Every structure is written in C-alpha cells, then in structure tokens.
C-alpha cells in the first residue's frame, strides 16, 4: 500500500475481524465485455474468501482461473473538518487480490455454502439444505487471502494548524448499523418457531455477530 500507508494493516487477525464484521463484498473482474463489479454475500475460512452465485453469473464465470479483486468496507463515521479539504470518513476496509478458482465437489461446495450462509446469519442447520438441482445451478469460487491488506481510519479530523483557532466546527458523526426485530413472512404457516440464531440477532450490530 502506497497512498495512506500509515493506515495500512497487514495482520491477518485484524483483516479477518473486518471480514467477519462485514456483510457485503464488492467483487471486480475483467470480462470479455469490460470491467464488472458486483456486490455479493460472502464467507471465509482461514485461507480463502468465498463467493457464490448462479451458474450463468458472468462475474463468477469470468473470475474462475483469473485475477480478481474483492473489497469489503465498513463506514464507522463521518469526519467533519474545519476545512472541507480535510473532510473524511472513519472506516475499516479490506482489499483482496488473487487468482480465483472454482470450488469443486458437492461436499466441499456444501461446506463453503454453509460458511457463506452462516456468515450472514447462522441459519444453515435450521433451514432446508440445497437440493441436487440447486447445487448444479450454483457456482462457487474461492479467492485466496494470501494477498489481503486492510486500511483503517479512526479518530478526529486532521486540520491545518492555522485553522485550529478559527470559528469552524470540527468533529465526527458516528455511524452504527443495528439489526431490528425479525418479521415473519406473510405466508409463514402458524406454529413455525423462529430459529434461535435469527431471534438473537435483534438489537445487535454486524460487529457482534461473531
């Protein structure tokens, strides 16, 4: 990392913590029709970040065996400076670059799909598993975490020294994300209990899911 190198983070534990707190990854790849970036759910283990989608997904299909870039960003607050040039945001972000590979074999694909599902909300064991037809229609790719880095900003604005005594306000506006109470589907049959993991998510933030 060159620009903003003072905010770079390379420790894998911190990188994994940011990935665990995130919900959406933006995956980019060069396709025959030009560059393409899509927001996607994801999961991870100690070695790879995983993405999945329909077999016809152009991004995933083009990504298999090629270099891809995946980013996850959490915005923690607005940074309001005295001078607008120094306005910023407090954030945590991860960038992963690597050669994607298609995940093969039903057993491994099921393991990875469980990781992706449970990353969002821990419901794999209380829901119907994919059937053979659904598995055939699903493409899963792995992106190694070997070339992953994070960038983190926290704290107050960094203003020009001459502006510190001026009349302008400076500070931060925190941003929080909180899960609200689950709402049952309109067509849910009576007597179907809510899974404990779904009920437990109310009032929590994505950071506290793990």
- Helix fraction bin: 10-25%
**What is the β-strand count?**
11
Q: Kindly provide the radius of gyration, computed on alpha-carbon positions and rounded to a whole number of angstroms.
A: 20 Å
- CATH homologous superfamily annotation: Electron Transport, Fmn-binding Protein, Chain A
Largest sheet properties: 7 strands, antiparallel
Number of separate domains: 1
Strand content: 25-35%
Q: Compute the separation of the termini in Å.
A: 28 Å
List the main descriptive attributes of the protein structure presented here.
single chain, 210 residues, alpha+beta, Pnp Oxidase, Chain A, seven-stranded antiparallel β-sheet, 5 helices, 11 strands, 34% strand, globular
